[in-house]
Design a protein that fits this description.
The protein is of the alpha+beta class. The chain is 40% helix and 18% strand. The protein is globular, with a radius of gyration of 14 Å.
């Protein structure tokens, strides 16, 4: 079994789509291990988005993720659960995400694209440790 981090971003919470999004993951067979509705402050956002520092969109990323609560969850499933989650999310730009994906079905714009999912096993380990320190080291491949 492996674990990955998913964030239902502020737009998902504001639009009342969290249940739909989590339901898709659960119907796929992934199990919710931890979850918390939380305000992500600038300090945590800057650590989470550290790889984007210096890019033109970095400030907008931080401003968006900190504007209102997000639901942060850890999902568990088979090896490389992060890949399953990323496939289910669809492309970052909802206009490029295929129907049947979260962003393809529910997304409206690139900047506010509903969900974040770890993009590798290493990212999953790092991100779970950031948001759920008690679960640190529990992500797998």
């Amino acid at each position: 079994m492996s674990r990955t981090l998913v964030i239902c971003k502020p737009d998902a919470v504001e639009r009342g789509l969290v249940g739909e999004i989590l339901g898709r993951f659960e119907r796929r067979g992934l199990r919710l291990v931890a979850g918390e509705l939380r305000e992500i402050d600038e300090a945590l956002a800057s650590r989470h988005y550290a790889e984007h520092v210096g890019r033109p969109y970095y400030g907008d990323l931080v401003k968006f993720i900190t504007r209102s609560p997000s639901l942060v969850v850890v999902l568990e499933g088979p090896a490389e659960t992060w890949r399953v989650v990323r496939q289910m999310m669809g492309a970052t730009d909802p206009t490029q995400a295929p129907p049947g994906t979260i962003r393809g079905d529910l997304g409206l714009e690139t900047q506010e694209n509903l969900v974040h999912g770890s993009d590798s096993s290493e990212s999953a380990v790092r991100e779970i440790a950031l948001f759920f320190p008690d679960l640190a080291g529990s992500a797998g491949t």
